[in-house]
Every structure is written in structure tokens, then in C-alpha cells.
Amino acid sequence: MVDAKTPPDAAADGPTGTAGSRAGKTSASRKGSSRAWATAASGRTAALLVSPTLLVLTVVVLYPTVMAFRESLYGVKGLDPKTGFISDTEPYVGLRNYADIFGAAGDRFWNAFGNTTFFTVTTVALETLIGVAMALIMHKAFRGRALIRAGILIPWAVPTAISGLLWRWIFNSDGIANALLGHQVLWTTEGFHAKVAVIIAEVWKTSPFIGLLVLAGLQVIPKEVYEAARLDGAGPLAQFWRITLPLVKPALLVAVLFRCLDALRMFDLPYILIGAQKNSVETLSMLAQNEASNVRFGPAAAYAVLLFFYVFLIALGFVRLLGADVVGDTGGPRKPRRRLRRTPANRAEAPA
Question: Membrane-spanning residues where (predicted)?
């Protein structure tokens, strides 16, 4: 009689091996379900924590934007062509208020659009240069640095309305500006000189803001980096271009982004300094306010909605193009490290 031996592999496939595999599958399914439950719980917790912010954004941003768009679909109260009487309600005109900007009535809109863009580009460029210079000065260690820092930050602390009145006094026909120039310039009238007055006042007011954010970025740069650069023979200019500017770039980009968004909504400074309904300095915010003050709420809401989308597109393009630098993440997505499965051979090769 032949003694039949069961091979080890066959024994593993027996009842005991099948039970072990079933137990392993059950354990894996339990781990998967617990992991899915933990992920869902963390998602609910994250949604709960973010919900107050979303609620505030809905009340402050979404609801006013929707109501402004709804108001822009209505025209101005006037004579009803059917009855011949003055209408008590605003007539529904659809997208006519938006279509009017491409006709003869859109000259004022495009003038305001050009002024807004010109002021934004010019003031932000000058403020960036002056703000970086201010930050470098405030970052240096010298006697009286605290006094210099306080003096540089004073313009940013002055309210914009007070700043506008101050510069209006400076740019008067018999003011300090004309006294320094030696001849009379009517700064607060129509013309390019009115634009120059607004740019000077705006740059003086908001350059310290960029300087303050850049100074915060300079504070976190280790001194050892500059010491190593000096040992390598790098001069002050090379240190600025190769060390200071790249390391302070995230803070600088955030400052420029904030200033762009603020300059696109410029209203109070040119309104107080130069005045309303001045074609040389009228911005989109001033145009919308003037239309609303003349009880033309439909066109005013249309201009406000267009300004909102203009600001939104600028912010979106800025973040999409420079988002990695804004958040300070210069590297790409990290690849997950591959975990090696420990085998008896690996255990044998591992040192004791």
C-alpha cells in the first residue's frame, strides 16, 4: 500500500488555509470600512469648521452680487409708452444696460475703465519700488531705526479722506506744490496733471503697506545666508538679486495682489482730491456712485457688476499664474514613497 503524502502547498489550501484567507479578507474589509468611516468623519468635521466662513462669504459677497445683477436687469423710471404716465416701477430691460456700453452711451464707461486700469498699473508699480526700498531701510540696524519705522508707517495710518484733504490743500493754486515748482498749475481741474496729483497722493498713502509686508518677509531670512554670500564674494547688489528678492518674493506677491485689488476699487481719494464727474480721474467706482446718486440704479448696478468681474478676473489670473509663489510652495507635488515589502530574504540581509 502506497503512503500518499500531502504536499505542503496542498495542505495550505485545505480547510485551515481557506479559513485563514477568509479571516484575512474579513480583516481587510473591516480596515477599509473603518478607514472610509474616518475619512467621512474628517470630511464632516472640515465642512463644519468651514461653514461659518462660507456663511459670512454668502452674506457679504454672494447675496449682494446676486442682488446687484438682478437690479442691473431693470431700467430707469420714466414715462410708460402704453399709458403715458410716469411709471412707479423700474421697467425690465434685460441686458440692455450691459449692451449700452458698446454704443454711444458707453464712452463714459470706457473712459472710467481706462482711468481705473491706468491708476492701478501706475500706482502699484511705483508703490512696489518705493515699498521695497522702505522695507530695506527699515530692516537695517542703525541708530533711530524705530523712529524711522514709525515715520514711514504714518501715511498708511492716516485715513484716506484725511489724506485727500491734505493733498488737496497741497495742490491748491497757492499751495505748497506750486510754490516748489515756481509756477501755477491747476492740479484739481481737468487734465493729465489731475492724474499726476492722484498718483502722487495714492503712492504716498499706500507705499508703506507694501513696505510693511516686505519687511515681514525680510525678518525671516537667516543671517547665515548673507554671511555665506559675503564669503563667496557676493556684493550688495548680487545679494539683493540672488538672495533677498527670491526669498521675499512670496510676501511681495501677496502685497502686490492686495494692492491691485484695492486700486481697482479706487474711489475716495480722487473723489475728495479732484472731485466728482471729472473725466480725467473718474474711475468705475465713481461712475457707479454717480449713476446711483442720479437715481439710475439699473446702469449703476451694471457698472458695479462689471467692476466686480474685472476685479475677480484679475485676482483669478494672478493666483493661477503665480499661485505657487503666493503660497510659498516652489516645489511640485510630492510623489508617495514606495514601501518595500519585508520578506524573509530582506530580514536576513538586514543588519542585526
Answer: 45-66, 118-138, 150-170, 300-323
Write the single-letter amino acid at 181: L
DSSP percent split of the chain into helix, strand, coil, nearest 5: 70, 0, 25
Amino acid residing at 144: G
What pTM was computed for the model? 0.75
Smallest Cα–Cα separation from 307: which of 124, 109, 122?
109
Q: Tell how far CA 26 is from the center of its chain.
A: 50
**Distance (Å, whole) CA 33 – CA 98:** 54
Which element (helix H / strand E) includes 261?
helix 245-264
User: Grid coordinates in use for 240?
Assistant: 539683493
Nearest partner of 73 among 85, 91, 55, judged by Cα? 91
d(Cα 254, Cα 125) in Å, to the nearest integer?
Answer: 14
Mean pLDDT per 10-residue interval, the chain, length 352 residues: 48 48 58 70 81 84 87 79 67 87 85 95 95 88 78 88 92 89 87 93 93 89 86 84 88 90 92 90 93 89 92 87 54 45 47 42
**Helical axes 107-139 vs 245-264, angle rounded to 10°:** 150
Give the bridge partners for 86, in sequence order. Answer: 79
